[in-house]
Amino acid sequence: MRVLVDGAxxxxxxxxxxxxxxxxxxxxxxxxxxxxxxxVLFRLAEHLDRLLRGLAVIGVEPPQRADLEAWASAxxxxxxxxxxxxxxxxxxxxxxxxxxxxxxxxxxPMPPVPEAxxxxxxxxxxxxxxxxxxxYGVKWLSYAPNMACGDIARGRGFDDALLLGAGNLxxxxxxxxxxxxxxxxxxxxxxxxxxxxxxxxxxxxxxxARLEFPVAEGRFPLQRLIDADEAMALSTVxxxxxxxxxxxxxxxxxDVTAALASAYRDIVREETAAG
Length: 275
Prior knowledge:
Blueprint: E1 3-5, E2 8-10, H1 22-26, E3 29-37, E4 40-41, H2 44-58, H3 65-79, E5 82-89, E6 92-93, E7 98-99, E8 103-108, E9 116-123, H4 144-155, E10 160-164, E11 170-172, E12 177-182, E13 185-189, H5 199-210, E14 215-218, H6 222-227, E15 230-235, E16 239-246, E17 249-250, H7 255-272
Parallel strand pairs: 9-10, 9-16, 13-14
Antiparallel strand pairs: 1-2, 1-8, 3-4, 3-5, 5-8, 6-7, 10-11, 12-13, 12-15, 15-16, 16-17
């Protein structure tokens, strides 16, 4: 594993941040995870756009964009086909002991993805479910409620959770977005629900256009997803993955998810030359 802290090479066992850093104390900071295909990062620019927007919103001075690009590319070259995590901490504001913001870039191995995901619907009252917040679109370091929901789901025999808003509206997964195929078109929750503006989601919409599937973005109750012909989870790790079980309901296997996954991979190959 390769770890850079503010651009300097650090042995993984010696990599740390100050105990006074608000990134540790309060989850104050932002992060991105970018997929590397054979050492080439996919849509790094879009990930950095989101990271820098988030840091600007919360008032954290970022490193130079060119530095972030160079650090991420160097780490990807070392990791090959992997995930590159970029973290910018908020620094510390203790009156007696300050701490500088830190930029951390490291690669992680790809985790396994089930052939068909089993998801447990969970009501998420902490989710903003609106894009009206001044912090909409900020990818905070603090994912604690999301991660806890995933643990609850796994404790009950599922692979992960699906977060629901008021009235059982479908929001997103703890670390992924969702879409489904219904009545000849793709449906996915709208960004106005306060879900993260997912880069994978945007690539899925491009993939659907290539296959001439219309896409409807809106507010959908859980039952709409349950009744759909096919359902899929979308993320940097999962790409376009089939959802096989939603709570107590099994989802049918079909050709649309496979076609969208293939179109997604075509876009990846075109942009990274990955095999």
